[in-house]
TrEMBL record:
Spans annotated as Disordered: 1-34, 48-75
Highest taxon listed in the record's lineage: Bacteria
Any matching Pfam family: DUF2188
Species annotation: Ciceribacter ferrooxidans
Bias (Basic and acidic residues) ranges: 48-64
Skewed-composition ranges (Low complexity): 19-31
Protein name: DUF2188 domain-containing protein
Length: 75
């Protein structure tokens, strides 16, 4: 099975898009960032991947992990 890709919430032509890592096209477009975040969070949670939320400037402003986070302490 192929590894699921992280989800990104990014600005797209005056809207907010949800993209999988490496994709050039958004899987969905939303009128607000909050709507896009809800959709992307649901996808990331169901696939056990990362969620990256970008600001209007395109820079990552928040990150959430819904899978095996390598930074988590073991034990």
């Amino acid at each position: 099975m192929a590894k699921s890709k992280a989800q990104h919430v990014v600005p797209r032509s005056g809207k907010w898009g949800v993209l999988s890592s490496g994709a050039s096209r958004a899987s969905s477009l939303h009128s607000t960032q909050d709507e896009a975040i809800r959709t992307a969070r649901e996808i990331a949670r169901s696939h056990g991947t990362e969620l990256y939320i970008h600001g209007k400037d395109g820079r990552i402003r928040e990150r959430s992990s819904f899978g095996n986070d390598p930074a988590q302490p073991k034990g």
